Recover the amino acids of this structure.
């Protein structure tokens, strides 16, 4: 939880929700709440398992964790 008026305390969450809005929400029209929930779950799965991140050496979070666990 961040202090009131200080978004830097919660930078990770702010970054995720910013990406969620630009990559998922702004460019789509949803027919129903059910469709929105289904596609949101799919996006979060994509974000956690498939989306390549430069900070993780061009790997998805799952690939990076698997490589890290093999080294350790």
């Amino acid at each position: 939880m961040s202090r009131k008026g200080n978004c830097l305390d919660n930078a990770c969450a702010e970054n995720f929700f910013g990406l969620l809005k630009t990559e998922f929400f702004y460019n789509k029209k949803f027919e129903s709440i059910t469709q929105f929930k289904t596609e949101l779950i799919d996006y979060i799965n994509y974000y956690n398992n498939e989306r390549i991140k430069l900070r993780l050496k061009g790997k998805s979070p799952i690939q990076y964790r698997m490589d890290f666990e093999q080294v350790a």
Remarks:
- The mean pLDDT is 86.
- The first helix runs from residue 11 to 25.
